[in-house]
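Sorry to interrupt, but I need a hand with the structure work. I would like you to pick a protein and set down its sequence and fold. Please put the record directly below this note.
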Amino acid sequence: MKIENSSGREIRTFDEWAALYETPQQSHQWKKHRSAWSVADFVMHRDGVSRIRARLTDALNQDVTVERVVPEFEQRFDQYGRGRVHDLGLFGQTADGRTVFVGVEAKVDETFGATVHDAYLQAKANQITGKSTNAPERIEQLLALHFAEPSPSMFEVRYQLLYATAGTLAVNVDIAVLYVVVFKTPLFNESIGASNYYDYIHFVNKVGGRPVPLGDKGAIAHEITLGDRPLVCMHEYFDLRPSGQG
């Protein structure tokens, strides 16, 4: 398994991983015990890839090999603006030779952001007042992808989950997986965690998620269909707090 940046340069140490965030645009993301830092800690110090691989093997009912890991992996999914930036992208294959991509969305005390309703209203307000934006068109296309029969309730879901799923499915592989990992660090907020879990379940139910049985009950998994393609969605907590803080 190789850990590398988006240009293919190998990442061998925690400090090399941290260097990905040494820019004015990204420096605010690298905070101890928050999501970006915790993903690096999980992979580099806690055998995180093996733990993810075990969960994939469970969900797909077949052994999975992870070959490449890319922090801050960006995937374009439409013709508008920047693509979906996964906290972690994993590439591998199953025992029967099918290719696999896992887009990891990491959380600690971060929310899933605005609802589609609020994001769309803000985007239209920007457009109407003369600001250059394609956000309304992007949101409309994402809604059409996720909801065959439009209804007002689709505006209640979190916008981040709309483009997270689209940006996972856009990778050219046989099996695509969106994996929401919630790290319980010293900064973990129980209230935000509960709210995030509700938002995730609400989204999966709204888009017609079908439960996927897991041998280990420490996580949940569903399969959804976007367009005519299946996507596996998973959610799991990992406790990274020092002993005695849990």
Summary: The mean pLDDT is 95.
